[in-house]
Specification:
Pfam families: LRR_1 (PF00560), LRR_8 (PF13855), PK_Tyr_Ser-Thr (PF07714). The chain has about 775 residues and is an alpha/beta fold. The chain has 18 helices and 30 strands. The strands form 5 sheets. Strands 1-2-3-5-7-9-11-13-15-16-17-19-21 form a 13-stranded mixed beta sheet, covered by helices on one side. It has a 6-stranded parallel beta sheet with strand order 4-6-8-10-12-14, with no helix packed on it. A 6-stranded mixed beta sheet has the order 23-27-28-26-25-24, with helices on both faces. Bound molecules: 2-acetamido-2-deoxy-beta-D-glucopyranose (6 copies). The site of one 2-acetamido-2-deoxy-beta-D-glucopyranose has 4 residues, from strand 8 and strand 10.
């Protein structure tokens, strides 16, 4: 009996469950049939009718329904490509009101169905939604804010619609968002910074819209693998990116910076297209050997620099398009090895090759110089004039700065004489006034400038663009001296007959001339017997917003070549004596001391090739850390915004940078002693060890290390002192390295010992014509 009761209860429950299931199913069926109607019975749904069990529908490429325990969780309807607008009586609101009757939908794909209208906020009632794909319809208006309520949303694809407005800030409310694709819409504005908070983002596709401006820092998107931004107005700065990228498409934008060195860490990058921008600066050779890269398109930019035929390439590289840039040198041999079926395009550069149309090298050099001139849709001639005019404006700003400096000098003097003059308004226009006054109130600085005065270098001034052009014979290739990390260098002659070296600094970011006033101010004061000093500058400006495109810095021309050529070219009679070598080392150390203690310029990364000798063989440091590079700009503005106070970490950084300079100086000392340059750190370490041993060993050991060219002239105590200071400069632990004052003292000691020996020698031998003597 109990059994029967039990059974009937069970039966009732089963019937009830089936009923609930059926009504559930029939409500879903009704909804789907309504959807079919609202979509105007598209061909892909032609087999839908009352009798279909939708949850068990055979999926095909255009229609798929997926249920979970009787509830519909996925609905995919993909119409015929090129579907036309649904009729006038279609209502997006009515359509979405029907859709939300399927509240368990996690995945919704409604592609190419002719949907038109703006997306109703009610769509957020599909609160389980994880994937929404409504590509290739005619949706217009903005992306409704209600989407931000779909906190489980992982994929949002609205490609190929007519969506307008800006990309909203509220995307940050979708922490799980992995794919955001809004290609082919008419979205505009710049991207919100909140985008960089979407840590899970793997695909960001915003191609073919009207976005513009700088991109937010995307390096925080550590999972980003696909970034597609083609055909917008992004720029000018190359985006900051994480290193997991696989696909990077930046074609057809307004990027005008250089390609950052970080690309060498993009170990997964397979596809790189930066074509049709105005990228400048040298092409990083590492691109050819990036381990995963198979597609590289840099065509139609203004990338410069020498390509070497010995560059190595990655085997995977299948498409390479370098065409229409300003590259010189030879194509990498590895690219041309034709056993690989690889497409390599490189026309319209200045490469040394008979193949594909190339320009003469001078074309690339001149164009490389002219790229600062951004003449949008204007004839070149006209833009030139405008640039000239603007560079004069730039000049005027500079003059104001200089007048400001002059004014301060005068003011200081007057204050001393306690005859205070009223302030003029001039100084108020000078944003660097405070800075100037600080430097000028530095007694050491003043004494340095005094010392400098008798050196006969003309005072700092602002040059016109015409003067620069004239000096370089319109940037003739014969005037081209080389290209360093800080831009091209040209030799020139000013009207007064003096020779100069002109450094062209291209700006990576857009700054107004005002941003540079205090840098220029500082540069104008970096004058020292042992520095290659700046004589003047000229700003060149962009036409569109008068921001600085290039700065020409005019330096004294130091005619006698590099220190390297004077220690290592033994057979050319151009070898410095031991005394001259110590003198050069003392000179460099004095230059460094000035940079550190007076100018506050660190991280100079000086190499032996950066030390030039003048007609009297006085050593002068070129390529010191000019306070104009992008990093230092960032540095300076950061310092400013944080109130400018030098806190503990600031001091620590300065210490580290000073100690790095000491190390670099130690390398130069090593090269001076050994008589040749070193390339690898390994070589340097080995020799340092050897010298370390030799110091505590005997004179024979020491002499065996020194350059044979000066072996017989250097006396042991002098050599030993030089070796000691050299080894200490190269100590691994930066804290144990000597200060620049300590270095200088030791070098001068080494010089004196050597000098005393020469003196003794002279007095004992008497005659100054002995060949030994000329060495001293
Ligand atoms: C729209 O109008 C057509 C006739 O022009 C009609 O067949 C269709 O059912 C209407 N659709 C809706 C959703 O009312
Ligand atoms: C199916 O839908 C019903 C009604 O919406 C709901 O109560 C039930 O929890 C759903 N089942 C599952 C497995 O989601
Ligand atoms: C979205 O729809 C487009 C067009 O059919 C398709 O190519 C794409 O793969 C879909 N994406 C997802 C995640 O379903
Ligand atoms: C963006 O586009 C909308 C309409 O499409 C327009 O009203 C708006 O001015 C544009 N905004 C910007 C910043 O260009
Ligand atoms: C590289 O980009 C340019 C411009 O976008 C395009 O015309 C060219 O076909 C591309 N090269 C390759 C190999 O795809
Ligand atoms: C390639 O050649 C250039 C000059 O021809 C040279 O400076 C460079 O060191 C070489 N690089 C390698 C990796 O051999």
């Amino acid at each position: 009996m109990a059994q029967v009761v039990h059974n009937s209860v069970l039966l009732v429950i089963v019937i009830l469950l089936v009923r609930i299931g059926l009504s559930q199913q029939s409500s879903q069926t009704r909804t789907l049939l309504r959807i079919q109607q609202l979509l105007n019975f598209p061909a892909v749904l032609s087999n839908w009718n009352n009798n279909i069990d939708f949850c068990n529908l055979e999926p095909d490429s255009s229609v798929t329904v997926v249920c979970y325990e009787g509830n519909m969780t996925q609905l995919h309807i993909i119409g015929k490509k090129g579907a036309v607008l649904l009729p006038r009586n279609f209502s997006m609101n009515a359509f979405v009101n029907t859709l939300v009757k399927l509240p368990d939908l996690k995945v919704l794909t409604l592609v190419s169905l002719g949907l038109w209208g703006s997306i109703p906020g009610r769509i957020a009632h599909l609160s389980s939604l994880e994937i929404l794909n409504m590509s290739s319809n005619f949706l217009y208006g903005g992306i409704p804010q209600e989407i931000s309520l779909l906190s489980g949303l992982r994929t949002l694809i609205l490609d190929g619609n007519m969506l307008a407005g800006q990309l909203p800030e509220w995307f940050r409310a979708l922490p799980l968002l992995t794919v955001l694709s809004l290609k082919h819409n008419v979205l505009n504005g710049s991207l919100p910074n909140s985008l960089s908070e979407l840590e899970n983002l793997r695909v960001l596709s915003l191609s073919h819209n009207h976005f513009y401006g700088e991109l937010p820092d995307l390096s925080t998107l550590t999972n980003l693998q696909v970034l597609e931004l083609e055909d917008n107005g992004f720029g000018p700065q190359f985006p900051q990116l994480g290193n997991k990228l696989v696909t990077l498409k930046l074609s057809r934008n307004k990027f005008r910076s250089s390609i950052p060195a970080e690309v060498n860490s993009f170990y997964q990058l397979q596809y790189l297209d930066v074509s049709l921008n105005s990228l400048v600066g040298p092409l990083p050779p590492v691109l050819f050997s990036l381990q995963s890269l198979s597609f590289l398109n840099i065509s139609r930019n203004k990338l410069t620099g020498m390509v070497f035929d010995n560059i190595s390439c990655n085997d995977e590289l299948k498409f390479v398009d370098l065409s229409s840039n300003l590259l010189t040198g030879s194509l990498p041999k590895c690219l041309l090895a034709d056993n690989k079926n690889r497409v390599v395009l490189y026309a319209r550069n200045c490469l040394v090759t008979e193949e594909q149309q190339q320009h003469p090298v001078s074309f690339c050099r001149n164009e490389a110089l002219a790229v600062g001139i951004v003449a949008e849709g204007k004839k070149k001639d006209r833009s030139r004039k405008a640039v000239l005019a603007l560079s004069i404006v730039g000049g005027v700003v500079g003059v104001i700065v200089l007048l400001g400096i002059g004014f301060f000098v005068v003011r200081r003097k007057n204050e001393k004489n306690s005859t205070k003059k009223p302030r003029t308004t001039l100084i108020i226009e000078n944003p660097s006034a405070e800075y100037t006054s600080k430097l000028f109130s530095d007694a050491r600085y003043i004494s340095q400038t005094m010392k400098f005065a008798p050196l006969g270098i003309s005072t700092y001034r602002v040059l016109s663009y015409e003067e620069i052009e004239e000096a370089t014979n319109n940037f003739d290739s014969s005037a081209f001296m080389g290209e360093g990390s800080q831009g091209q260098i040209y030799r020139g002659q000013l009207k007064d007959g003096s020779f100069v070296a002109i450094r062209c600094l291209k700006m990576k970011r857009r700054y107004s001339t005002q941003n540079f006033t205090h840098h220029i101010d500082l540069i104008s004061k970096l004058r020292h017997r042992h520095l290659v000093s700046a004589l003047g500058h000229c700003f060149e400006l962009y036409l569109d917003d008068s921001s600085v495109s290039r700065i020409f810095l005019v330096f004294e021309y130091v005619p006698n070549g590099t220190l390297k050529s004077w220690i290592s070219e033994r057979h050319s009679r151009r070898s410095l004596t031991w005394t001259q070598r110590i003198a050069a080392a003392v000179g460099i150390a004095k230059g460094l001391q000035f940079l550190h203690t007076v100018a506050g310029v660190y991280s100079n990364k000086i190499k032996i090739t950066d030390v030039l000798l003048d007609q009297n063989l006085v050593a002068k440091i070129s390529s010191y850390n000019l306070p104009l590079m992008a990093e230092s700009m960032a540095e300076v503005s950061r310092g400013k915004s944080s109130g400018g106070s030098k806190d503990h970490s600031d001091n620590e950084r300065i210490n580290q940078e000073a100690q790095a300079d000491i190390y670099d100086f130690g390398v130069i000392l090593l090269e001076i002693i050994r008589g040749r340059a070193f390339k690898s750190k390994g070589e340097i370490n080995v020799l340092r060890e050897k010298i370390q041993e030799a110091i505590s060993s005997d004179i024979v050991a020491r002499k065996s290390i020194v350059d044979p060219g000066v072996q017989n002239e250097c006396i042991d105590q002098s050599l030993k002192t030089m070796m000691e200071v050299c080894v200490r400069c190269l100590l691994k632990d930066p804290i144990t390295r000597p200060s620049i004052e300590d270095v200088l003292w030791n070098l001068q000691f080494a010089a004196q010992v050597q000098d005393a020996w020469c003196g003794e020698y002279r007095s004992s031998e008497g005659s100054p014509v002995s060949p030994k003597l000329s060495i001293c």
